[in-house]
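Protein modeling request. Please complete all fields; requests missing the sequence field cannot be processed.
Requester role: graduate student
Desired output: 3D structure, token encoding
Chains: 1
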Amino acid sequence: MNIYLIGFMGVGKSTVAKELSKRLDYQLIDTDDEIEEREQASISDIFKSRGEEYFRGLERELIRELSSKDNLIVSCGGGIIKCDENIRLMRESGKVILLEASPETIYERVKDNDSRPLLQANPAIEGIKRLLNEREEYYNKAYTDKVDAARPVQMVVDDIIRSVH
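Delivered output (165 residues):
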């Protein structure tokens, strides 16, 4: 069984995934990091040069590959749930945990990070709320459990471990 962490950018997927990986002794895969390594380009550069559709195709290929493996903690890019095939594969091969935080918390976490391509044009809280609303139906379709990620990492990890065991 794999554990897939989904949620909006800035909710702490990468941080939680690292701690969860240590605690469960599962291999950690961050989909954005993996794609950057394979493409030898940053996510931001991939968006600029090849577009979002190309990037989403890379995500689909990666999820197909990862879903055939076991004992992975997968920190998923924020928009990975926009594809029904990704959702199906993740749910068939593990638990999908939605990490949630308020738009204000997300804004505080991402406001100084210029590597967030979808927020560069609209970094305000209103832009975050708009994107969260656009993705809400996808998150609701994808998750098997959800966790409040606006708390200390250890508490979030404890909740996830209880949820999957």
